[in-house]
Design brief:
The complex is a heterodimer of chains A (about 475) and B (about 110). By secondary structure, chain A is mainly α. Helices cover about 75% and strands about 5% of the residues of chain A. Chain A has a two-stranded antiparallel ribbon with strand order 1-4. Chain B contains 5 helices and no strands. The longest helix of chain B has 22 residues. Classes of the chains: A mainly alpha (about 475), B mainly alpha (about 110).
Chain lengths: ~475, ~110
Amino acid sequence: MNELIPLMVIVPLISALIISAFSKFNKVTKIFALIVAVCLPLIPLLSNYGLHYFGGYQPILDNVTNVVYHPAITYSFTFLQQVFIAMIGILTFLVVFVYLTKYRKVSGPYLFLLFLGTAAVTAMLLTDDIFHMFVFFEILALAQVGIVAASSIDYSYEMALKYMILGSIGSPIMLLGIGFLLAITGSVNVTDIAAAVHNGLVDIKSPVFLASLGLIFFGWLYASGFPPFHTIKSGIYSKAEPHGAALLQSFTVVSMISIVLIMIRIYSSLPIFEVFIVFFSILAMILGVSLALTQTDFRRMIGFLAVGELGFIGLGIGLGTQFAITAGLFQALNEIVITALLFIGFGAIVEATNEVDTRKLGGLLAYHPKVSLMLLLGGLAMAGVPPFNGFQSKLMLVQASLSCGFPELSILAIMVSIATFVVFVKTFYVMFLRPKPNDLEVEGKEVPRSMVFAMGILLIIILALGLFPDMVVNGISNFVGGIL
Amino acid sequence: MKLYDQIFDVVKQFKKLFSPGPVTNADVSGSLTAEMFLIVSLILSAILLRHINILLAGIVTLILAVVLISSIPLIPKFKLEQEDSLEKMLFYAVLTLSIIVVFLYWGGNLV
């Protein structure tokens, strides 16, 4: 059923508009949002792999040069897109479910932003058109700003505004890079651009081509939250509602891999491209984990850890081999699930205590044993402890860097994992194990059941991916083999 | 003894890092871990320069090790630069863009 391919974007997009327009009917809005949220992971699972040409414009074969041109905006749906879109769908469902059960009167504009963001990242994953990707990248940035600004946390407006100001630098620079590519290839279709580059129609040493790489790369740094944008990225996670932050980090990971997969197809013949990715990945890992170790606000701590984990994804992609890129993409999938679990879990603690400062917390194991156990398991998964999924992907990354002749990177990856483990041991101790401070009030405050349910589902996925990694690794490896 | 005093001073400086508010053992041990992690990981990353030139890697690693160890505590300075100030974020964004452009201009010859 290839007709379902465009519906993966159209359904959340139209639903977002409908919910926003009819949000005054509270009960109907809730039921409709829940039905759409259930449908989101099902559509990619029911759809067949293939291509969708918008407007029905099929590719054109130039008989003189024997080159195929793609006049239509093309959506390409393979195993990689299926697994990531389904995972985003599951997360959106869980986040919407947590939101709907939390508030008696729901906000239409907030649900609009959640569905709009989901539609945008889905389009970014599917599209084979670099300008189309940019348009949805901009829509996603606005949705992210809205989700942060809509939260009731102090200074959320300020952080959202800062993110928007920095975006006003990152986005136009990326657009300029896309413009340079259009100028030298005459196309915005990624397949056509890649064909022009690999067939020698474009001089890869030309300053315009190199400049396009630099500009798009800078935009990618902004989208991914790599340094120098790591501070603002962790900031927006900490100022969003916990369920919103869970979805925001998944948007970041998916937009990061969507853009980098396009860049790999166009710029893989330039060795400096891989050097750049590895350099910024190392920087993200070091900065993310160092700063996480010094945080006293546990939401900010998870934000910095999420940035550090992005470094692992970049490391795999930067190494450039089929095995390494597969490991990087598998790490991306794992990070989406693990970080969402942690954001929701720590959000549950905020619900129960109204406190985010680890220095003022303690003794919570006795009051919330289920949440603390699931948080501990999530933390172990992020640190790369077997048998969880984080262990599988990080082991693959260590093996990949060793086989590429970079033992330093393997040691660094292991060190970052150990430091992540230290962050969790420290945080778990101060929040759950040490004696409860006298002035901390936790009696009678329950963690919402919907949050425990969401954490349980995510934990099952973490365990399943850890015990049976071949479920996704083989398919991702085949996809990577196809683009290299 | 000078190095010992310097390390002891690090713990005292961490107090300022967490002010206002109490400083717990866990916070100080976390910051010390961050300090050591930062130094070791930066030195380890410098060894990667051996893929360009072994002598360069050796010199840079040694110089970096001396500079980093002699300027501890790094984390308070480091954290100060990574705060939520828009000016600093914009400064580092523009700096990174400049570095990328410069490297691409010169790196174009290495393609």
